[in-house]
């Protein structure tokens, strides 16, 4: 099936709304949290699969509603997007997003009631961001970061009692996503030097935070170090370029690198908690996400 045929296929348009490459990064969150819980030792894949289905629904639904709320803005700035181009209807997108969010919560409940509550909180936070948070310069990045931090804890929730012990792990993706979200505001018209510097400093804080996990007795910082170096290389270079030259093009490159490198961030966490082999398993998601990013929009 050629590109022209795909672009006229309504099912393809709705798939584009879900941004599959981004959903793969959400899988990595779950696997990292799963590693932190220690549950992977039991080799019970059923619970992991439920959580992967849950995050697919939550992330997919949240990103679909992002386009629903942005319909009028996209008609001016991104008319090629599925809804403003007419390839997908707004009503159909609302229905798809609703189904995905419901599936996400119901799948999480199959693991534990704590997982269900977390999933409901993530869904609510995603809708809040789509409708309101994205327009707030300070609350918006924190709001979006909470969605990813909650997603990491959703992986931990396979052992509900550990949420209280590992809640602080959510701060790492919260700060990381806050950096990406803040920088992404300049994707269309360009950004400010101060915003670029702030985003860069937040990324540096994340790197030091990951190093700081070495203080935990069950985190192997030296096992995680190669992945941490890879994360620093992949993210710091484009973020520095975007801070020095905050043009829409440089910002889009940095944001895309930041989104896809979420998998490397999660790989760093997974390797530290579960060892090299498990870390490499999570890292396999990166080429999959990168291939999908060539087909589907990431931002």
Automatic annotation (TrEMBL):
Task: Quote the Gene3D superfamilies the UniProt record gives.
Answer: UbiA prenyltransferase (1.10.357.140)
Instruction: Quote the subcellular location field of this record.
Output: Membrane
Taxonomic source organism: Nostoc parmelioides FACHB-3921
Chain ranges passing through the membrane = 21-42, 48-69, 90-107, 166-184, 196-216, 222-241, 253-274, 280-298
Q: Does the keyword Amino-acid biosynthesis apply?
A: no
Show the NCBIfam families listed in the entry.
prenyl_rel_EboC (NF035940)
Topology with regard to the membrane? Multi-pass membrane protein
One of its Pfam families is: UbiA
> Known InterPro entries for this protein?
Prenyltransferase_related (IPR050475), UbiA_prenyltransferase (IPR000537), UbiA_sf (IPR044878)
On the tree of life, the source organism's domain of life is Bacteria
Q: Which gene encodes it?
A: eboC
CDD domains, per the entry: PT_UbiA_1 (cd13964)
Name of the protein described by the UniProt record: UbiA-like protein EboC
């Amino acid at each position: 099936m050629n590109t022209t045929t795909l672009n006229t296929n309504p099912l393809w348009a709705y798939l584009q709304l879900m941004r599959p490459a981004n959903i793969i990064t959400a899988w990595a969150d779950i696997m990292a949290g799963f590693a932190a819980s220690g549950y992977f030792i039991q080799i019970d894949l059923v619970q992991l699969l439920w959580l992967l289905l849950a995050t697919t629904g939550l992330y997919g639904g949240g990103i679909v509603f992002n386009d629903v709320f942005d319909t009028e803005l996209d008609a001016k700035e991104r008319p090629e997007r599925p809804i403003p181009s007419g390839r997908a209807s707004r009503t159909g997108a609302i229905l798809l997003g609703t189904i995905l969010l419901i599936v996400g919560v119901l799948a999480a409940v199959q693991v534990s009631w704590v997982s269900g509550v977390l999933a409901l909180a993530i869904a609510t936070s995603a809708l809040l961001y789509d409708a309101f948070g994205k327009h707030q310069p300070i609350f918006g990045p924190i709001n979006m970061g909470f969605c990813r931090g909650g997603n990491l804890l959703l992986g931990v929730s396979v052992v509900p009692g550990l949420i209280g012990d590992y809640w602080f792990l959510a701060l790492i993706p919260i700060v990381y996503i806050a950096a990406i979200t803040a920088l992404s505001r300049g994707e269309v018209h360009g950004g400010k030097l101060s915003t670029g510097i702030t985003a860069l400093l937040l990324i540096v804080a994340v790197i030091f935070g990951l190093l700081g996990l070495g203080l935990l007795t069950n985190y192997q910082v030296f096992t995680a170090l190669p992945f941490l170096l890879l994360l620093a290389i992949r993210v710091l270079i484009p973020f520095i370029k975007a801070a020095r030259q905050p043009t829409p093009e440089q910002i889009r490159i940095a944001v895309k690198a930041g989104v896809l490198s979420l998998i490397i961030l999660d790989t760093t966490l997974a390797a530290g908690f579960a060892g090299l082999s498990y870390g490499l398993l999570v890292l396999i998601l990166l080429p999959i996400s990168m291939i999908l990013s060539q087909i589907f929009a990431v931002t």
